[in-house]
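Q&A log
Question type: sequence-to-structure
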Amino acid sequence: MSFVARVDDAFGAVAQTPAANPHWRSRYPFQKHVIARSPYIVFFVALPDAVEIVAVAHAKRRPGYWLRR
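Response status: OK
Response body:
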């Protein structure tokens, strides 16, 4: 399975059950979903009527670097 297909699957899982994913850090509103067989994480915010994907970031590189972007 390609990386793009894994990201697409992760987006689908996040859209289906956003509450099943843990919060990233307590002072931020972001939740995270680890992409299967990949060192990447999808960060998102669950809104009442939608899910907003904020970042797809490498899990082993400078945590939180995407916050400034």
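Response note: Residues 3-68 form one domain.
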